[in-house]
Amino acid sequence: MAEAGLEEVETQTEETEYQEPPQQEQEGEQLPEYGGEQPPPQQQQPSGGDQPYGGEQQQQTEYGGQQTLTSSSGANSDMGRNLIVNYIPPSFSEADLSSLFSPYGELESCKIVHDQGRSLGYGFVKFINVDNATNAISGLNGTPVMNKVLKVSVAKPSSTPGKGANLYVSNLEPHTNEDVMREIFSPYGTILEVKALMDYKTNQCKGVGFVRMHSKDEALAVIRNLNNQSVPQLSKPIQVKFADNNNENRSKGMIRNKTTNTAFTRYDPYSVYAAQFQQAANYGGPGQLGNAPAGGIGG
What we know:
By secondary structure, the chain is of the alpha+beta class. Among the domains are: 58-154, Alpha-Beta Plaits (2-Layer Sandwich); 244-285, no CATH class. The protein contains eight helices and twelve strands. The strands form four sheets. Strands 4-5-3-8 form a four-stranded antiparallel β-sheet. A four-stranded antiparallel β-sheet has the order 10-11-9-12, sandwiched between helices.
């Protein structure tokens, strides 16, 4: 996702978490931090990162006029028929996605998830017949489409993708971009969203970014394996922690009060954080921030 970062997602119910080994060079899903303490391996899970991406609700998620099923009977009725598709090319339309899957059987629904009119790089395809859905997975999972390689799997019920899995990454080097971040984090699960905050005058990374994994377990795996650790892509250790939701209201207030930075505010999903880091830069750079910005990506 060298673009504003979204290109795949495994979600549940109408969104699921991808369960095959992650692909290193893809942008987006099944998936798998600037400052932050590393939680001891078997300790209580760190708090934070609880806001689902794109305004999704905790128990019931809406996208494209459809709601995720939260009852056991509803979930069972969809068992095996509803597929999540990750790494959808940004230019792909729902008609394109339908054309790709319809040869495998009659479709009940087909939806690409968008935020602010931009594709998030993943979607859902529901078949009438479970056998057709199974054949579609066999036929299309791992298929190259444009510059992506599709990940297709059964969507899992009763969960909001990305909930509690938003990470704040720091100590990134100036050359770091979203492709580099995907290389670093994709071995640990499906990436729903990634954003490196850039200085638009120099086109270099400000040293911080956000990564939203598909699940909290994947986010924990990232923290345990990467916090304060060196990675091949960078020359110094990175820091990773859960994004701090306690600061969410404050950071949203900052963006409302700061209207001059049009280069950042045009990227709606990230404008809260862009404004926060711009303010930090005015007083000495990102290192002046005490806590990770609230909510991270899409918080």
